[in-house]
Automatic annotation (TrEMBL):
Coiled coil: none
Domain Thioesterase per the UniProt entry, residue ranges: 18-226
Signal peptide feature range: none
InterPro entries: AB_hydrolase_fold (IPR029058), TEII (IPR012223), Thioesterase (IPR001031)
Gene Ontology biological process terms in this record: lipid biosynthetic process
Pfam families: Thioesterase (PF00975)
Family listed: Belongs to the thioesterase family.
Domain of life: Bacteria
Protein name, as recorded: Pyochelin biosynthetic protein PchC
């Protein structure tokens, strides 16, 4: 396993499928620490450069840098069927990585983000520190204590700003779509994505497509984790059966 890029709390070398989870802007692999889909699924989470135990590495602040690097890191993991789950910024990243992999994932799960071809302007990556922190607080999922002092702000905000830059400057380019089923997940009170926007992911699907709505805001995953994992597990079991494993 490419140790620098992925964290796995419970290795399952006999699992039938790997689920690789890609965090949101400013997020780390620890966001998925509690995820467990049972013995058939090995759950891994990506640790992007520039955070947590990779803090000394420079952040990658463009999709054209991060997606190929992550796809390359995933290559050794393609010895088993692979599924991708991405939340918010991680959803766009999961989509682009799925387009790059030599062996397509068996399922792509995208959460809390509008469809790639839909341009939603944003310039918060150029905003003041106060404005950037205010947006983080608006979305939830971030502890206010992390930005309570200038020292902590100076430590965490550069990484957040780099991720916002990646998310806001990302531009979809026409090309082959992921050749796997796509499931879109979102919170019914998410200020970042509506039901109509979730449905517009359909234009990127060449196989089965589904939308799953859960109670909650942009970080609905915290409160609905069991339901989300159940939905993902159901889809993966179907993919395993379809593959004859």
């Amino acid at each position: 396993m490419p140790a620098a890029w992925f964290r796995c709390r419970t290795p399952r070398p006999q699992s039938l499928v790997r689920l690789v989870c890609l965090p949101h802007a400013g997020g780390t692999a620890s966001f998925f620490t509690e995820w467990d889909l049972g013995p058939e699924v090995e759950v891994l989470a990506a640790q992007y450069p520039g955070r947590s135990d990779r803090i000394v590495e420079p952040c990658l602040d463009s999709m054209t840098e991060l997606a190929p690097r992550l796809a390359e890191a995933l290559d050794p993991l393609l010895d088993r069927p692979l599924a991708l789950f991405g939340h918010s910024m991680g959803a766009a990243l999961a989509y682009e990585v799925a387009r790059l992999l030599d062996r397509p994932p068996i399922h792509l799960f995208v959460s809390g983000r509008h469809a790639p071809a839909e341009l939603v302007p944003g310039s918060l990556h150029t905003a003041t520190d106060d404005e950037l922190v205010a947006d983080l607080m608006r979305l939830g999922g971030t502890e206010a204590e992390l930005f309570a002092t200038p020292e902590l702000r100076n430590f965490f905000l550069p990484t957040v700003r780099a991720d916002y830059r990646l998310a806001e400057t990302y531009r979809w380019q026409p090309g082959p779509e992921p050749s796997c089923p796509i499931t879109v997940l979102f919170g019914d009170s998410d200020p970042e994505v509506t039901a109509a926007q979730a449905e517009r992911w359909r234009q990127h699907a060449v196989q089965e497509f589904a939308v799953a709505e859960f109670p909650g805001d942009h970080f609905y995953l915290a409160g609905a984790r069991a339901a989300v994992q159940a939905r993902i597990g159901q889809a993966l079991r179907g993919a395993i059966v379809a593959a004859g494993r």
